[in-house]
Each structure stands twice: as C-alpha cells, then as structure tokens.
Amino acid sequence: MITIEATAPGGSEQALFIKAGTCYIRANRVVEAKGRTQWLWALESKCPMLQAHLNGSVWSNPQGIWTATVDTNLDGQRGFLRLNARPWPELTVEGELTHNLPALKDLPEHSRLRVTCRAGKQRYDTEAVIQTEECTVGASGVVMSQPGLRGSLVYHNNCTVIQEWGSPDGMQSSVLLVVSPTVAESQVSMTMDDAELQASVALKKNKRQRT
To answer: What is the pLDDT, as a whole number, of residue 112?
Structure first.
C-alpha cells in the first residue's frame, strides 16, 4: 500500500510524506525570514533492497544559487554529494563527491566537478573539469559565429583508468565553416596525442556572362 500525505499549514512550512510499506520519504519546505527557500527530505527504510539511511536538502539563496546535498549511511559506510548551480549570468555547476561505499568502488573516493557555460552575442564558451586525488580530466570549447562559424576544442586527461578505456591523453581540434552566395569553405584540424589530421574543402561559384 502506498500512502501520500501533504500538509500546508499557515506560515512558512509545508510538508510531503510518502509511504510504501516500511519505506517512507518525508520532505519539508521551509521559507526563512531572509527569503531563502529550503527543501529538507529524508529516507529511512527497512526494505530488503534498500537498507540505508538517506538525508538531503535543496535550497536557493537570494543570489540565485541552488544547492543540493545528499548524505547516505549504509552499515557504517557513508557517501556525501554536494551540488551547487547558478543559472545566471553564466551557467555554473560545481559538485563534490566523497564516499567509501562498495556500490561506488569504481569511482574515486573523493572527486570534484566544475562545469561553466558562457554565452555572448557571437561567442559561446564552455569548460568542464573533473578532479580526483590522483588525476584531472578537462575539456574546453569555443564556438564563434562571425566571420563564418568557428569552433575549437581542447581536451586533456592524465587519469590512467580513463586512458585504459581508450581515451587519448590530449586532443586539440578546430573547425571553420564559411558559406556565402559565391563560396563555401570548410577546414578541419585535429591533433590527438602524436597523430594529426588536417582537411579543407572549398567550393566556388563561377559567373557566366551572356552576350
């Protein structure tokens, strides 16, 4: 049997309760005096498939930054995840994961993530970095719309585990595309570890004169 209860008493608090058998999720929404809205939720279970305690919260501050945290405990082994996100004036996402859970044994016990995206009138930049205790993986890209369409990508990786999956140590690439009523031109350049690739194509329209 599944039971769902929602309460919205007068004031700044609201609550949501979901129960399915011996498992239940409880969420509380609190609006503080300074205008910050916070969701707090907790999961406790005796389910055979989910023997864990899970606590988390989600809130935003007046600057528009959203923060989410998750803390889990399974037989004395813990995991903690924090995410910060800001949608404006540039999209920024930062994350941190710390754990010693057997279910996540293929992931580093401590890692950080940062993703940023910036959009201008004729330019779009993005960057992503994952950092662990032993190595770093990062990529950055730029797209410009004038003159023509230009793009570039830079990638670097010194993580042995990811390299074993077939990922290169480093890569740089650039693309140019120009189209007009009289010419179409495309150029591609790529460097991956010790290998290089360059290609270009140009098409021109000739005018025919009639007498």
So the answer is: 96
Average pLDDT over residues 86-94: 89
CA Rg, the chain, in Å? Answer: 26
Cβ neighbours of residue 66 closer than 8 Å, sequence gap 6 or more = 58, 59, 60, 84, 85, 86
Query: What's the whole-model pTM score?
Result: 0.72
- pLDDT confidence band for 103 (50 / 70 / 90): confident
* Count of CA atoms in the C-beta half-sphere (13 A) of 195: 4
Contact 28, 11 (CB under 8 A): no
